[in-house]
Amino acid sequence: MRSVVATVVAALVVASVPAPVQAAPVTIANGIHSPTRVAPGVHAHGGGVLEAGSYWYWFGENRNADDTFRAVSVYRSAGQRTWEFRTDVLTSSSAAELGHAQIDRPKVGYNAVTGRYVMWIHKENDTDCGKARAAVASTSTVDGPYMFHGGFRPLASTCRGTSPCTRRVAPRT
């Protein structure tokens, strides 16, 4: 009798386990404008993506027609297929220093110690690339606005390209 009960219980347990669920495959094509809910396309050159809560946030450069810095824009998506424009989190009028600056490659991360979102950017003077700096902005909410804290040269280095800033070292004699 015990073996019959055990067999029935085992059958009920197996029958109650749901089958694995898979989402339908979705193709996202490269080289086309990504659809958004409120804009004709995403303006997020050199950007980065961050997951916060149940959404993904895409930060990137938004340039004027003459290729000068206009803003760092942020878009939000629940599934990374359709993006919703949120706002311009840092603009050329956010700080006097940004009025004539070139801002490149904004990346945002969360600092659990301070409870703030921190944006690292590459900043140059609009006429002198030799004045390149790493720059920082922060906010208490992922979609800003971000307060610009300024630029600096870590270890008195130049900040060029996509690699980390490299320290200038005198040649060996």
Question: How would you summarize what this structure contains?
Answer:
The chain has 173 residues and is mainly β. The chain has one helix and eight strands, in the order αββββββββ. It has a single domain (2-156), classed as Glycosyl hydrolase domain, family 43 (Tachylectin-2, Chain A), CATH 2.115.10.
Descriptive account of the structure:
By secondary structure, the protein is mainly β. It has one domain: Glycosyl hydrolase domain, family 43 (Tachylectin-2, Chain A). 9% of the residues lie in helices and 39% in strands. The protein contains 1 helix and 8 strands. Strands 1-2-3-4 form a 4-stranded antiparallel beta sheet, with no helix packed on it. It has a 4-stranded antiparallel beta sheet with strand order 5-6-7-8, with no helix packed on it. A hairpin with a 4-residue loop joins β5 and β6.
